[in-house]
Amino acid sequence: MSDAAASAPLLEVRGLRKSFFGVTVLHDVDFAMRAGEALGLVGENGSGKSTSMNILGGVHRPDAGTMLLEGRAYAPQTPKDASRAGVAFIHQELNLFPNLSVEENLFVDAFPRRGVFPFIAPLFIDRRAIRRATEAVLREVDLAIKPSTPVAKLSQGERQLVEIAKALSRQAKLIIFDEPTTSLTRPEVERLFSIIARLKRRGIGIIYISHTLEDVLRVCETVTVLRDGHHAGTAPAETLSLQKIISLMVGRSIDQIFPARGKPPGAKPALEVEGLTQRGVAENISFSIREGEIVGLAGLMGSGRSELARMIFGLDPFARGEIRVSGVPLTNPTPASAMEAGLAFLTEDRRGEGLLMDFSVAENTVLASLRSLAGTLGFIDTRKVNEVSRETARAMRLSTDRVEDTSAKHLSGGNQQKVVIGKWLRRQPKVFILDEPTRGIDVGAKQEVYRIVNALTERGSAVLLISSEIEELIGLSDRILAISKGEITGEFARKPFDREAIMAAATRLAGHESFSAKAAPERVSA
Amino acid sequence: MKLGSRALLLILQNAPALLFILLLIVFGLMSDRFFAFNNFRNIVIQAAPIAILAIGMTFVLLTAQIDLSVGASMYLTASVAALYMADLPWPVSLLAVIVMAGAVGAVNGLIVTRLGIASFIVTLATLFILRGIAMWLSNTRTLMFPDAITSLNRASFLGVPSAIAGFLVVFALAWAILNQTPFGRQVYAVGGDPESARKAGLPVGRIVFWCFVVSGVCAGLGGFVSVTQIGAVGPSYGQQVEFSAIAAAVLGGVSLFGGRGSVVGTVFGAILIKTVQNGLNIINADPYIYPLVTAGIIFLAVAIDGLRTRIVERMERRTIRPLDTGAAAAAE
């Protein structure tokens, strides 16, 4: 490759604009990168990272803006266009078929064929050709497996390497990684990084998206920060510190966002968890939350934080351990018995689990407390339902007052979240577990949610807060627990929190540093 | 627990084979006529129509759909052939039956993929519609077939009885399509994860559509083979055959949830079912317990499938921490 080609930008994005349903999510975003370089793309949830990547990958089309790939106009209409132009997208949820072999996965949408019968168009898959091609790209990613291995038998890290091999087999010039490390073990992460370095040496451009900022700084030459759909800044990685990136991401000081608490936490424990263990998911987890206290759970996606919440609420099983709510043991919890005991759980999947989208706001708000609204014969008293839910809507400062004929899907993300929280507030929970309560909602709505959480604690509820945004944890929590690989790896008391220490604990591979060095145990054969 | 479930999984995966061996032993002990070459040839001849139907069903099941209309399609296409094509040479009737049945499959496939209605509902409706048309055309009379067609049953190609030959051709074609063509592997991809298939740019709708056409064509063919054996069709012809076909496929390891199974297994399942009926016949069992035993086997098949799916799910459950053994070694 000549010097001129190496210094010309591989990808140039100018003035990218996109809105959904009248809400602008990207405002004239620019970025550029050279071949053989990695560009880190960081920003909070909802900052426009995924939208810009979806435009690059041909999933969405921009309202305005131009993209140049190797100096030529690039405007993919479908993911297939993007792949043909040499742009590969490796999603967080890998796009492989476990029931097919590795080689079949690589070629599933375009098998090379060979003729068997003369004068008839080639019908059959050219097995030898795909095997050879697969072996070649597997070598490039250092994956020593047979191309005929079913993907189902591979580990998560191996599957990701197969995805990279797939990109290579398509002559990708640009590979986009979206949160590639969340489900990998640390040795697998190291292997991924060495492969990425090799890809760069081959002149392939990398766009690396991650919430783990240390990794971004390590992998990338340049970092672009997005905030609320705006381009907040671009700088060479060596000139950036974690603090600098975070301040670019957040764009304001923390005190302005997080309202002050009215009342200090009480003394009595509301939730006690002791020795919670489930093989492969959680190891001996113990902690307690006092009345009116907010405890933050800091961990990466896939660290076991959501699983812990699900176990406490009786959604997932656990092998050993004890849960007590206000001192009363909660044995073999089911969601029903957990709710009975005074637990409430705001799931991270608002659309999937928290809200019935086609139901009205009123129906949604009373869903968790239907029994208290039944009349003498057990029928639901509709007038009471509407009254109660309107009351809740006002308390939550919902955007609509017409609770009975607005269906949940017509509300904005922030207002939907208020409905879900409102639904649980009606039960006046003793312990409220919030899993990503502000994901994908704008700053204004976030503040409303924070205000509601504070109001909750003033009434004596204990809160277990799970969030990917460390700023949110630091701003709201009285105490922070770090969780990694299903183990509690650190506890941090009230302010000032040491952000770096928390991040370090949350990314630590607890008790398993020697994991890669450990001699391979005897294989268990069936 | 892990070792235990692995062993259990191994048994469940080979359950049909174990069941088959057990049946052979039981029937062999109860009658000395059972272990005769002629008897086994008869079993395969009797299994041929169901096996052909089940092979078509396998395509549909692999995409996580279902086709309940195959029995009714058999009845209608055979009735049309008996009513209007009695004087034509048999290859014409055969071709007409295949084309008509293929068209039925195409209609099913179009409704399922274009209107997005669940295939269970669509094919349940076509089942009644096709059966209704056939009864209306035939006035519910029993229709006889000419000698030209019934004599095919006694014919053989290169020493192989015609029913077995027909079934072998279908089997070989289906195997080659599913394992050696891009379409076949894409069928598995669509069944394994339709969302990923769509993201990978596969024409999911078109693939599902063609699977219904294959199922239709197989229904026509299977019906024709069975007509050569029976020589007449009446209102009860082809009734509940769809369930035997599904049972054969599931017994052979095809998952009702799509993406898993093979035609080899399906053929094995069909032969297993017919072996049971043949064995019951040979030991002079009460004819009224035939359906009971068949139902028992179908139930067993579905139960095994469910159990196997659950165990596979448990073994593939995502873990956050490295498990102490096995997983760590496998990751390296």
Structure write-up:
With 526 residues, chain A is an alpha/beta fold. Chain A has 19 helices and 22 strands. In chain A, the strands form 5 sheets. A 6-stranded mixed beta sheet of chain A has the order 6-9-10-3-11-12, sandwiched between helices. In chain A, helix 5 (127-140) crosses helix 6 and helix 16 packs parallel to helix 17 (443-458). By secondary structure, chain B is an all-alpha fold. Chain B contains 15 helices and 4 strands. Chain B has helices at 2-13, 15-30, 37-62, 70-84, 90-114, 119-138, 147-150, 162-180, 182-192, 194-199, 204-230, 241-251, 263-282, 289-316, 327-331; strands at 143-144, 156-157, 160-161, 232-233. In chain B, the strands form 2 sheets. A two-stranded antiparallel ribbon of chain B has the order 1-4. A two-stranded antiparallel ribbon of chain B has the order 2-3. Chain B is globular, with a radius of gyration of 21 Å. Chains A and B meet through helix 3 and strand 8 of A and helix 1, helix 9, helix 10 and helix 15 of B.
Any key phrases for this structure?
heterodimer; A: 526 residues; alpha/beta; six-stranded mixed β-sheet; 19 helices; 22 strands; disordered N terminus; B: 332 residues; two-stranded antiparallel sheet; two-stranded antiparallel ribbon; 74% helix; globular; disordered C terminus
Shape call of chain B: globular
The counted number of beta strands of chain B is 4
What spatial order of strands do you see in the largest sheet of chain A?
A: 6-9-10-3-11-12
Measure the end-to-end span of chain B.
Answer: 23 Å
Q: Strand arrangement, largest sheet of chain B?
A: 1-4
* Shape summary of chain A: globular
Oligomer: heterodimer
Our estimate of the beta-strand percent of chain B is under 5%
Mean pLDDT of chain A: 82
Q: Output the number of helix runs of chain A.
A: 19
Low-confidence stretches of chain A: 1-6, 510-526
SS content category of chain A: alpha/beta
* CA distance, first residue to last residue of chain A: 52 Å
Main beta sheet of chain B:
2 strands, antiparallel
| Largest interface (CB < 8 Å) | A-B, 49 and 42 residues
Give the topology string of chain B: H per helix, E per strand: HHHHHHEHEEHHHHEHHHH
